[in-house]
Amino acid sequence: MQRDSDVRALVLRSAGTxxxxxxxxxxxxxxxxxxxxxxxxxxxxxxxLHDQEILVLPxxxxxGDYIAAGRVFGLELRQRLLEPLQRFVEEGGFVVGIxxxxxxxxxLGLFEPEAGQRHIALTDNAANRFECRWITLRSERxxxxxxxxxxxxxxxxxxxEGRFVVQDKDVLRELFARGQVxxxxxxxxxxxxxxxxxxxxxxxxxxxxxxxxxAGLCDPTGRVLGLMPHPERNLAPWHHPRWTRLPAxxxxxxxxxxxxxxxxxxxxxxxxxxxx
Length: 276
Known about the structure:
This protein is an alpha/beta fold. It is built from six helices and eleven strands. Helix content is 25%, strand content 22%. The protein has a nine-stranded mixed beta sheet.
C-alpha cells in the first residue's frame, strides 16, 4: 500500500512504455506519493505538473523507437510541454529519465548548454545488438545533489541504443568540467578515475561502448538526470542474480538511489533568477 507523503512523483507514460509499473513501485517504496499519468492527460492539463516534486520518464520503447529511440516522445514533449517542463525545473522540481527516458531527455536537448544545439547523442550499441545484463555503476562528482560520489550501484541494462557519443573531445571535457557526468560504468575489481581521458572499461562491463564509460548525465543544475541502467530492477536483496553469494542486505542498492532522490525533492528550492 502506498503511504501518505509530502513528496509527489509523476511517472509519465505513452505508447510503448513498459517499465512504468516497477518505476511506480520504486518511488512508492522510497516514500513518494506516486501517480502514473499518460502524456495526453498531462498535455491537457500541464498545471498538474507543478503539483509534483519529481517527474519521471521510465524505460520502454516509446512509439516503438521506429525513427530513433526516444525521438517521437521527445518531439511530443517539445511541442506540447516544453515550457511547463522548463518552468518545473526552474521552480525546483526534479526530472529523471531512465533508459528510454534518458533517450527522450537527450532528444529534448535538456543537457545542452545552448537551446537548439545538439552536441551529444545516444546511438546504437557498439556490439550492434540488444544488451540485457547486469553492470556496475559508479556515482561521480556532479551537480546532482542526491548522488554520493564514489558509490557503486549494481543494476541491469536492457537497451539497443545506449552508446553515449559526443561531437568532439572538447564537448566531452566540458561535460566533466560542468559537473554533468553523473554515472559511469566501472570494473568493480579494477576501479579507475573517471574523466575525459579515462581508459575505456572493456565490454561487457561497459555494455554499449559509451565514450568515457558514461552511463548517466545531469544538466548543469543537477535537477535533470538521465541514466541508461535500471535501478528500479534492484530494489530487493534477491533481485541481484548473485544475491546468495553477497553479504546480507536489507534492500537492493537501487532502493537507496530512489530514497535519496525523494529526500532531496523534499528539500527542493527554486533556482536563482534575475527576473524582477
